Structures are given as structure tokens and as C-alpha cells.
Amino acid sequence: MTDRYASFVQSAAGRALVKRLGLPDPPRLRRHHPGDPLLPGPALLGAATGGRLAEPISKILTNAGIELADPAANTAAAGTPQRYGALLFDATGISDSTDLRQLYDFFHPQARSVLPSGRVIVLGTPPQECASPREAIAQRALEGLVRSIGKEFGRGTTAQLVYVTRAESGVLTSLESTLRFLLSGRSAYVSGQVIRVGAGAASAPADWDRPLEGQVVLVTGAARGIGAALAKVLARDGAQVVALDIPAAGDALAAVANDIGGTAVQLDLTAPDAPTRLADHLAGRHGRVDVVVHNAGITRDKTLGRMDADRWDQVIDVNLSSQERINDVLLERELIPTGGRIVSVSSIAGIAGNRGQTNYATSKAGVIGLVDSLAPALHGRGISVNAVAPGFIETRLTARIPLVVREAGRRMNSLAQGGLPVDVAETIGWLAWPASGAVSGNVIRVCGQSLLGA
Ligand code: NAD
After folding, report:
1. CATH code matching the domain that covers 216-446, chosen among 3.10.129.10, 3.40.50.40, 3.40.630.10, 3.40.50.720
2. What residues contact 299, with CB distance under 8 A and at least 6 apart?
3. What is 31-73+82-197's CATH number?
4. Which helix (H) or strand (E) holds 344?
5. What is the Cα–Cα distance from 360 to 246, expressed in whole angstroms?
6. 239: CA distance to ligand 1 center in Å?
């Protein structure tokens, strides 16, 4: 599960060879540790004329302890160029394609001024909320800039576009939670994403280092891999974790639960009585479940012509149908309260498709459908529904892939490396925070801006 090449290029001999041969150069990514500052350096905030977000963003950044740089300080006359932890640009004032020039004017002089593992964040208005077709076109254009910066800046820098609704409710709290996630090392392996912050109830935590304090969180498939990392990250952030896995994984599951002071539930999600048994457990033990993370998943790979019906059925059942059945029962019994969260794990295979994975890709595209249909349906109940779509993550699952395919999977992304289970866990954590209630209906790829399905 270790990326030996990435370790090698960090050594002196490795650095020399990479330079001489022009080999891929995976940077060491900045990851989150509680108590870390959000950024490795000051932030530079720019805005298009008439932007509506520069002021709230500047407040959010200042409250978060981020130093705001003076834009005038980086001119040629100022001597040593300033280096930034992040460049943020409020593009909400852009109402016509000719206004796009303001993006060039802001980013061009700063293209080399971002620190390693720095952040680029552009904020816009959702095109469907724009007052005119011209404004909608210009706002849509922002995607191209952001995705290209993600590919150009290098050294672990990530770039995202955040569309922020004009509606008032919940927006500023969820904008803050989103910026805190994106600026921090929590988002190390998330790049080239378009994130929508809409209207919805959201409440800020007393302590942003414990954003899930007091929340009851169910994690399925928690015995190992991404699920085990999830249990750890969510518990670190203050959650009471209910860790679920199949009885055969009981020992590993108990170890995970003990490690974090959580509880373990041994249950096969595909058993006919699984939804009621789970609902009974949650009702009896906690009286509710604030966050449901559908992480359990399996692969049974074969090309379609060689695939027996069992492989098809098992994958659809574990990865998709069981999620639907569990949601139905938990919602029907009102165990997910107002302010609740449902977060599902999809995959980039569900976006791009994958040879040998028709069953898996179908199930994972279905998970995206689940987000599309449930998010608006549950908006009125104050429950958000989102998914993450991991790319190549270093787990036992990907360790089994043949070397050449594995190396391709690892390197074919803007960060030239695979992600870690913790990267998926941190992203799910952010979607689960009470402060992120206005982030719903999103599918966030945790793929280092993979070329697949881009
Ligand atoms: P993993 O195989 O290491 O862990 C999956 C866990 O789910 C296991 O502990 C397993 O016992 C459990 N599980 C399987 N069937 C179950 C059932 N019927 N009832 C209860 N638990 C069950 O896999 P992982 O790599 O940690 O993947 C976690 C999720 O992330 C999956 O949904 C997977 O499809 C998705 N994903 C992983 C990657 C990757 O690169 N590893 C990429 C994209 C998506």
C-alpha cells in the first residue's frame, strides 16, 4: 500500500533522477493535524468589480486567523516577491465574458507566487441563478480557468470553484465550513472541483477543531480501508461513531471501535432484516443518527460478457440497493433528525465507467442518482445528501491491481500520486459537519484531479 516511487523522489538521489529524466514528480502533500494553522502562509484575496462575497470572505479568513496580504506588496517595485498560502478571487461581479479579463489580471502576476500545497479558490454565482444569459455564460466559464490552474500550478497546489447561492439562509456558515475545508490540509487530494453552496440550515461549531462534537455518526464498512480511516477522523472531530461491518470482519471492527471509543455493529447490510435491526440498534442506543455514511462497497470485476449474474447482483445490492433500503427505514422512522446528513461513497468509475466494472460503475453511478433525487426531496426536512467519488486511493483494494495499471492509476492525475484513505475521510467529514448544511446535492471527487472522466 506504499507508493515507493513517491518516497524515492523525496530523496536526494531521487530528486536528481527525476530532474534529469523529466519523470513524474509527486509532491509531498500538506495534510491536516489538529491545531495546525489553516494555511502555510498569507492569503491574497481579489475581487471583480461589484463582487458580493469579498467582504464576508475577508471576515471569515480573518476570524480563522489567516493573514490577508496586501495586493500592492507583490509588484516589481516591492523587491522580494511575496509567497502566498492561497489565492482567492471573488468572481461574483463578473457579468459578461469581457469581464473575464479581471481573472487574468489577478492570477497572471501571481502564477508563481503560491507556496507548495497552496490553494486557489474562485467564488462565483451558480449559472442557473444568473440574471441574464451573458452573466450565466461568464460564470460557467470560471470552470475552465479553475480546472486548468489545477493542472498548471503544480507542487501540490489545488484549485476549486465554489458557486455560492444568492439566497441568505445558512450560506455564510457553510461558506465558512467549505473555505476552512478547502484551505486546510483536509482537502489535500481534492482538486479541480466545482462545489455548490446553496441555501439550508447550518450551525457553526463552538470549536472548529471539533466540528462534529456530539454528533452520532454511522459508518458502514468500517473494519478497514477508507471506512476505518473515516471512523478515526470523525471520532477525532468529536463524533460518537457507530462502526458497522460484516460479522466475518468482527475482530478488525472491534479493534477500530475500541481505538476510538465508538461502538461496533456486526451486520451484513444485504440481509433482509438489516435495515430494521440497524434502526432498532440506533433507536435503542442513541435515539437518533445524525450522520449516515454509506461507505461499504465491493467489487466483483469481469467484463460484461464473462460476468455471471451473481457478480452483478452482489455488487448492485451492497453498493446501491442496501443504501436505499437503509435510508428508507431510517427516514420513515424519523431517526435522522433535522440537520441530519447522508453521505455516500461513489467512485470515479461511476462517472467515467471502467473496463471490467460494468456492475460496479452502474452501482456507483446509481449512488450519484441517489444524491440527485434525495437531496431536493430531503431539503425541507433539513437533511443534506452528498457523495464523494474517490479516484485512486492507496488501500488493499488498489494494492491488488497489476503493477503497470496501478502505476498508471497513481500518476494520471494533477498531483501525480494516489490519495490516502484519510483524504476521503476528511472530505466526508466536512460534508457531515453541522456547519455544512447548505452544501447538499454535491458529488465531490477525491481524485487529485484524475484524468478519468474529467
Ligand atoms: P475495502 O474492501 O477495504 O473495505 C470495504 C469494507 O466494506 C470492508 O470492511 C467490508 O467487509 C465491508 N463490507 C462489504 N460488504 C458489506 C456488507 N454486505 N455489509 C457490511 N459491510 C460490508 O474497500 P475500500 O477501498 O476501503 O472502499 C470503501 C468504499 O470506497 C467502497 O464503497 C469503494 O467502492 C469506494 N472506493 C474505493 C476506492 C479505492 O481506490 N480504494 C476508489 C473508489 C471508491
Report:
1. 3.40.50.720
2. 315, 357, 360, 397
3. 3.40.50.720
4. strand 341-345
5. 19
6. 21
* Residue with the three cell numbers 467519488: 389
The answer to whether the CB of 447 is under 6 A from ligand 1 is no
144-171 pLDDT, tens per residue?
Answer: 999 999 999 999 999 999 999 998 888 9
| Averaged pLDDT, 19-33 | 84
Q: How many helices (H) and strands (E) does the chain have?
A: 16, 12
CB of 276 within 6 A of ligand 1: the answer is no
Residue 315 corresponds to which cell in the numbers above?
455488487
User: Does the predicted model carry a pTM greater than 0.90?
Assistant: yes
Of all protein residues, whose CA lies closest to atom 31 belonging to ligand 1?
297
Write down the domain spans for the chain: 31-73+82-197, 216-446
Q: Is the CB of 246 under 6 A from ligand 1?
A: yes
Residue reference for cell 476570524: 63
Is the ipTM beyond the 0.90 threshold?
yes
CA-based angle 418:419:424, to the nearest 5?
A: 150
Q: What is the pLDDT of residues 282-304, one digit of tens each?
A: 999 999 999 999 999 999 999 99
Using the mean position of ligand 1's atoms as its centre, give its distance from the Cα of residue 295 in Å: 6
Give yes or no for residue 268 CB within 6 A of ligand 1.
Answer: yes
The CA-atom distances, in angstroms, between 336 and each of 215, 273, 429, 431 are 11, 19, 17, 15
Give the CA distances from residue 349 to residues 354, 358, 363, 406, in Å, rounded to whole numbers and listed in that order. Answer: 6, 9, 10, 15
- Per-residue model confidence as pLDDT tens digits over 299-353: 999 999 999 999 999 999 999 999 999 999 999 999 999 999 999 999 999 999 9
Catalytic site includes residue 189 = no
Residue 433's pLDDT is 98
